[in-house]
């Protein structure tokens, strides 16, 4: 008979040093001591997922975030032991498969971006920015021009841009934007001339953070180059470029990519992120590595999730990637046009320059890129001023309609930035559009005085089941309207787990929902 496991445990000496043995209790939180079967654990996880308004229920139209489908077929390989169980610091001859995947993926991404070299080492878009700015700084220093330390950044830029420039020791000089949200070329020219002797770089986002294709991007790149600076093109909006325009070909010197956005690695919740840095030929020696220094301790960065992007590129192919970009742009413009009489789009292309294709993308007047900024700022005044309807009220009411809210108040306060991506069907786009139109009709009732300020479906949204089932109901609208503002919701309803919270109070006060350390 085989000895019992307990016999092994009792008769086998511990190899751990006595001084390192833990004597205190651990894993004492109830979550670790409540579920004692696989069935119980499964139901606990299901209960948590029921709280979440995720992509498996609805579109997540977060502008600037590119929340798109992560296909199951892309995810399967990361569960294979050959990828999942390899140690990040194992000897090079034991990760030959990873090295091949790394080489192929880098080649595909270079082809898509028009750059000569790329490093997959950075573990986030912000880390990719840092690596890219380090490459620019290293380039200037190698040429004996280490004094070049001025980085021009448009006022519309992502917040990480000035942070990255500052971290590598550069001084940020902000350039203005015009009324259409584009970089003000006159102001840029003046700043380039003013700082010509010390100009190191400019950091731009293309399409811009305002959701439009900057028609003067080639002129901008040429201007900065003429003053000895290099051009950093933020790759956050690459989902509007793949197959249509290549930053490395229209004047960019460096870009980071968000594989967890454009190239399908799951996004949100803090990771897993991969932010490769791409460069033109003369900056290749300054990519992260032995010569310049690593930005990630693991040689291949966050390699465990790279099979997802490899699968995405391999299965889509060049034509599929281009088609995805085109559908993403079409979907955003469809939303913008359908909603223009209800919520005007704040920024659109003012004019059309250049030729269509990989070098300069053509954008007709009145069009957007892959996302649009809906202007809700006038609604507060039209619905009562101080206590009028806000963009936040609209986002909360969208939850009652079963939608995750778009990006709120970025990059412009009081607006909603909507990015549908290519993952959404026409039916889902129409469902979102119809919900937004219905909400505008609800706002009209506040404007007309049918519903009072502060006591209407928008100001009380989102509506929880508990708030609807109370004995009293003193609101000037029905419980049914609160819960089921659209007929289809009676067949498929997402119930929010909590109602409205005080965001400002939460931002200013620290709250801990975990079990006390004591």
Percentage beta strand: 5-15%
- Termini separation comes to 47 Å
Number of helical elements? 18
Radius of gyration: 26 Å
Which ranges are low-confidence, i.e. pLDDT below 50, for 5 or more consecutive residues? 351-360
Structural class computed from helices and strand pairing: alpha/beta
The CATH superfamily of the largest domain appears as: Type I PLP-dependent aspartate aminotransferase-like (Major domain)
The largest β sheet comes out as: 7 strands, mixed
Q: How many distinct domains? A: 2
CATH architecture type of the largest domain: 3-Layer(aba) Sandwich
CATH top level class name of the largest domain:
Alpha Beta
The level of helicity is 25-40%
Overall pLDDT: 92
Written description of the protein model:
- The radius of gyration is 26 Å and the shape is globular.
- The protein has helices at residues 5-11, 38-51, 72-75, 81-84, 96-113, 125-142, 160-167, 185-194, 217-226, 247-250, 306-338, 377-382, 391-400, 426-447, 457-460, 465-468, 479-483, 503-508; strands at residues 117-119, 150-154, 171-175, 199-205, 230-234, 254-256, 277-279, 372-375, 407-408, 415-418.
- The chain contains 18 helices and ten strands.
- The chain is α/β, with parallel strands linked by helices.
- Helices cover 36% and strands 8% of the residues.
């Amino acid at each position: 008979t085989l000895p019992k496991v307990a016999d092994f445990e009792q008769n086998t000496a511990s190899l751990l040093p006595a001084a390192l043995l833990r004597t205190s209790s651990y894993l004492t939180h109830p979550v670790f001591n409540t579920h004692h079967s696989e069935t119980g654990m499964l139901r606990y996880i299901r209960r948590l997922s029921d709280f979440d308004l995720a992509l498996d229920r609805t579109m997540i139209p977060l502008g600037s975030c590119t929340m798109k489908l992560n296909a199951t077929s892309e995810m399967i390989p990361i569960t294979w032991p050959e990828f999942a169980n390899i140690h990040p610091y194992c000897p090079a001859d034991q990760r030959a498969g990873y090295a091949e995947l790394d080489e192929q993926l880098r080649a595909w991404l270079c082809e898509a971006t028009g750059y000569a070299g790329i490093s997959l080492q950075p573990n986030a878009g912000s880390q990719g920015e840092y690596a890219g700015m380090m490459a620019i700084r290293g380039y200037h220093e190698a040429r004996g021009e280490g004094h070049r330390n001025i980085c021009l950044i448009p006022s519309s830029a992502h917040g990480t841009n000035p942070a990255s420039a500052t971290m590598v020791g550069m001084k940020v000089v902000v350039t203005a934007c015009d009324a259409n949200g584009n970089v003000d070329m006159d102001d840029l020219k003046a700043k380039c001339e003013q700082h010509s002797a010390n100009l190191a770089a400019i950091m731009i986002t293309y399409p811009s953070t305002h959701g439009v294709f900057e028609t003067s991007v080639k002129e901008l790149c040429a201007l900065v180059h003429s003053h000895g600076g290099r051009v950093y093109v933020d790759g956050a909006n690459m989902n509007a470029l793949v197959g249509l325009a290549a930053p490395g070909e229209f004047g960019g010197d460096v870009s980071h990519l968000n594989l967890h956005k454009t190239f399908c690695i799951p996004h949100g919740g803090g990771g897993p992120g991969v932010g490769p840095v791409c460069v033109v030929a003369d900056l290749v020696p300054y990519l992260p590595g032995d010569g310049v220094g690593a930005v990630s301790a693991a040689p291949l960065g966050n390699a465990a999730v790279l099979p997802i992007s490899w699968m995405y590129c391999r299965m889509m192919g060049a034509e599929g990637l281009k088609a995805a970009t085109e559908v993403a742009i079409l979907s955003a413009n469809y939303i913008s046009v359908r909603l223009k009489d209800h919520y005007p789009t704040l920024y659109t292309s003012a004019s059309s320059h250049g030729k269509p294709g990989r070098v300069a993308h053509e954008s007709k007047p009145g069009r957007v890129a892959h996302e649009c900024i809906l202007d809700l700022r006038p609604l507060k005044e039209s619905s009562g001023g101080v206590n009028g309807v806000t963009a936040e009220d609209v986002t909360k009411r969208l939850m009652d309609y079963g939608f995750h809210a778009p990006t709120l108040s970025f990059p412009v306060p009081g607006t909603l930035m909507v990015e549908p991506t290519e993952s959404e069907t026409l039916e889902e786009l129409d469902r979102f559009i119809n919900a937004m139109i219905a909400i505008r009709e609800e706002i009209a009732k506040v404007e007309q005085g049918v519903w009072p300020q502060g006591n209407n479906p928008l100001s009380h949204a989102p509506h929880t089941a508990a708030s609807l089932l109370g004995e009293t109901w003193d609101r000037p609208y029905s419980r049914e309207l609160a819960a089921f503002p659209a007929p289809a919701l009676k067949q498929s309803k997402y119930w929010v787990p909590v109602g409205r919270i005080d965001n400002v109070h939460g931002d200013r006060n620290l709250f801990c929902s975990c079990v006390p350390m004591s």
